[in-house]
Design a protein that fits this description.
It is a single chain. The chain has about 375 residues and is an alpha+beta fold. Helices cover about 20% and strands about 40% of the residues. The chain has 8 helices and 27 strands. The strands form 4 sheets. Strands 14, 15, 16, 17, 18, 19, 20, 21 and 22 form a 9-stranded antiparallel beta sheet that branches. Strands 1-6-2-3-10-11 form a 6-stranded mixed beta sheet. A 6-stranded mixed beta sheet has the order 5-4-24-23-27-13, with helices on one face. β10 and β11 form a beta hairpin. It is globular, with a radius of gyration of 21 Å.
């Protein structure tokens, strides 16, 4: 059993919604509350409400740029969305505030709360808390984990333990065991402008050569395909993919993450992309695109729905970049409508995030931008 809610509200209204969910799910085992606007600025007070209203239920309170549910999306307003569910064991955890090595601290936290079991780790990271490579190597400590999550709006997410302790850190998360791992998929809001080229030469985060040409030459060739659209100043991004298993593969089926182009080195004809652009990585260029974003979300919703055949869906989480939403589509609730058309009245809760943590492989995840991450939790039928 699971129930969700979303509303434009202050603390009094939120208390009412939390109490309604608690009554609707009497045997609840875990929950998440996303808050935006003034509620996000008062996340500690919200956590106190959750602790008192959902007494004994482990949960997480997540400050967001906006919130959403199957009913719609709330952007630029004070509001909340959330989901409360029964089934499985839920354990909040948080990294130490001043961890010398956040990547190592995260691996240790997952090893402690999950270990080798089949489980789920939902991570909510404060902006700047994780470097691009911080999620590498998670499979070594939690090989059976499904890992995904998002970046908060500003402050830390707050975990509420079953004993009523409030915990928070640069990364706060929920470890879920004893529950079927969710079906998770992700899609960037981008249209590729070029094929993928193997990166051949990198210096200090600056990609110098890829595919036998200078990186700047590749960028110029890719943006030339925009034609008259270039006058609208579209946002051009780098798309990074793993080394190709089949170098002849279709670029449209390549899984990639988006990165900003942070600068240009004219003297070396290079592009500053950061530490995860390494020799062997494949590089393409993409532009943020509403039609591609819509088609991508429809595609992953269809894939997740089909993958769930033979099981009983309980609820879903949808974590969408704040760079999507009405600012991208020019209309409200576009993504909520897509989810509702595919999943009808399935309880869904989610947020508009500062970045996304997209699943990549068993026990592995990648930091992503302009991406939607959809996770469907279900019980075997």
């Amino acid at each position: 059993m699971a129930r969700s809610f979303s509303a434009t509200c202050g603390p009094d209204g939120l208390l009412h919604h939390l109490a309604d969910l608690r009554s609707a799910v009497p045997s609840a085992s875990g929950g998440i509350v996303f808050v935006s606007g003034q509620l996000a600025q008062r996340a500690s007070s919200v956590a106190e409400l959750v602790r008192s209203t959902w007494r004994g239920i482990p949960a997480c309170v997540v400050p967001a740029a906006g919130v959403l549910s199957e009913r719609g999306e709330l952007e630029g307003d004070t509001g909340a969305s959330g989901v409360l569910w029964s089934g499985g064991q839920v354990a909040p955890f948080a990294l130490p505030e001043r961890a010398e090595d956040p990547s190592r601290a995260l691996r240790e936290a997952l090893a402690r709360t999950i270990g080798p079991r089949s489980a789920t780790a939902i991570l909510f990271a404060r902006p700047g808390a994780l470097a691009a490579g911080a999620l590498e190597g998670l499979a070594s400590c939690a090989p059976g984990a499904c890992v995904f999550g998002a970046g908060t709006a500003s402050s830390s997410a707050i975990g509420v333990t079953s004993q009523g302790e409030l915990i928070e850190g640069p990364v706060t998360g929920l470890a879920i065991t004893g529950f079927a791992p969710p079906i998770v998929d992700a899609s960037p809001a981008a249209r590729l402008l070029s094929v993928f080229h193997p990166v051949e030469e990198v210096s200090g985060g600056v990609v110098l050569r890829a595919g036998g040409r200078s990186a700047l030459e590749l960028l110029s060739a890719a943006t030339a395909t925009l034609g008259e659209q270039a006058s609208a100043q579209p946002l051009v991004l780098a798309a990074l993919a793993d080394p190709a298993e089949d170098p002849r593969g279709d670029a449209s089926s390549v899984r990639y993450v988006l990165r900003p182009i942070r600068g240009i080195d004219p003297s070396r004809r290079g592009l500053l992309l950061g530490e995860d652009a390494r020799p062997g990585t494949r590089l393409a260029f993409a532009v943020r695109d509403a039609a591609a974003a819509r088609a991508g979300l429809e595609g992953i919703a269809r894939h997740v729905s089909r993958s769930a055949l033979g099981s009983a869906p309980r609820f879903a989480l949808y974590l969408s970049c704040a760079g999507r939403g009405q600012g991208l589509y020019g209309a409200p609730d576009v993504e909520a409508r897509i989810l509702r058309q595919r999943f009808a009245d399935l309880p869904i809760a989610g947020m508009h995030s500062s970045f996304e943590i997209a699943p990549w492989a068993p026990g592995e995840a990648r930091l992503a931008l302009y991406t939607g991450v959809l996770a469907l939790f279900r019980a075997p039928s």
